[in-house]
């Protein structure tokens, strides 16, 4: 599968804890977050819902966007999410991952 640079935002719940990341393999990276393969912030706070993602033509553009979003105020991030995803739906099933179980895993 061809790599596709992407910036993504995960949430623990609507209006919950947010995580912004960058990857060239969104499905693979989401799998890592959801299974806790890599311990850290997202596994500690159960941040598993994909609420926004943006695809880029190159990794440089994706990294610049990630850095920009990380500097934003929390409300700006919430507004960005709600502009395209007003109900904070988990977008992972739309890109091929199974839905999260009710326990969030």
Element-by-element helix/strand order: EEHHEHH
Provide the structure class: alpha+beta
Low-confidence stretches: none
CATH class: Alpha Beta
Which word captures the global form?
Answer: globular
**Domain unit count:** 1
Give a written overview of the molecule.
- The chain is an alpha+beta fold.
- It has a single domain (about 5-95), classed as GIY-YIG endonuclease (3-Layer(aba) Sandwich).
- It has 4 helices and 3 strands.
- The protein has helices spanning about 25-35, 40-45, 60-70, 75-85; strands at about 5-10, 20-25, 50-55.
- The protein has a 3-stranded antiparallel beta sheet with strand order 2-1-3, sandwiched between helices.
- β1 (about 5-10) and β2 form a beta hairpin.
- The two termini are about 25 Å apart.
- This is Excinuclease ABC, C subunit-like.
- Belongs to the UPF0213 family.
